[in-house]
Amino acid sequence: MPVPAAEVMKTQAIGFYGQPLGAEGKEYLGIVFEKIVSAWDTWQKSITFGALAVTGGGIGVWAGVGSGGAMTGQPFLLQPFSFKANSSQQLKFTKALADALNAKFTPFPTTFSFLAVNYTGTCGATPLSPGPVSAACIPAPLLSVGKGTAPSGIADVWAAALTPPEFQLSSPQAKSGELIKAISKSIEQSFQSVWLATTTINANNLTAVGAPGGVAAGFSTGSDGKLL
Q1: Which of 71, 112, 113, 151 has the smallest count of CB within 10 Å of its CB?
Q2: Helix, strand, or coil here: 29?
Q3: Range of the domain at 179
Q4: What are phi and psi of 216, to 5 degrees?
């Protein structure tokens, strides 16, 4: 499943901001979320998983359940981008966002634990003799097969990098602080309610030898799993 849509996250952020933004502000948000979606897509495609311990059985048709394993991925890298006059303040604003997203997204794969993943395939064993087992995971949403530490607190990390005198986020007149919170909330909610619920595990394969009767216990899958 593709990552959350830029336009949807932009609309959410505008709603969370709750103040007039203006055409230029909306244009800026559109670019911000387009860049976030691009980085998110690259990060998702870098993630692989495997090494789940699978136990199951069957003659002919084989089914099992796996758990444990490991997930890995590359850092979340938001590319620098220009906007209008491209002031030093704007560059620092987006650099701080990039650093916050890297800090909050990048650890997710290493924190994810698979609790129950279903595998299905075939087994050449008979009631009296062993035989080869070949199986693959059944695609399922991440939300249903395990858990990990979702990005949270993006706004805090982002805002902490924007210090006086260029940024006066604590001032009642400053609107940047509220915009940071709105953008961050949209990203975090999209991760929880959209990405985890619609992104599926795929293509993780198991090759093993089933005992007589087709039982294969504790065999490790390959590291070829992908997220789609």
Answers
A1: 113
A2: helix
A3: 6-210
A4: -130, 120
Give DSSP secondary structure letters for 40-74.
HHHHHHH-EEEEEEEEEE-SEEEEEEEEEEEEE--
Q: Which H or E element spans position 100? A: helix 88-105
Exposure string for 59-98, b = 16+ CB within 10 A, e = fewer: beebebebebbbbebeebebeeeeeeeeeeeeeebbebbb
> Of 210, 215, 54, which is closest to residue 132 (Cα–Cα)?
210
- 48 in a structural domain: yes
Would 216 be classed as within a structural domain?
no
Give 105's strand partners. none
Decide if 1 is inside a domain: no
Q: Is 215 helix (H, G, I), strand (E, B) or coil?
A: coil
Give the global pTM: 0.93
Question: What's the number of domains the chain is made of?
Answer: 1
* 218: in domain: no
Identity of the residue numbered 81: F
Buried b vs exposed e over 20-38: b needs ≥16 C-beta within 10 Å? ebeeeeeebbebbbebbbb
Cβ neighbours for 26, distance < 8 A, ≥ 6 positions apart: 10, 14
Question: Max Cα separation, the chain?
Answer: 79
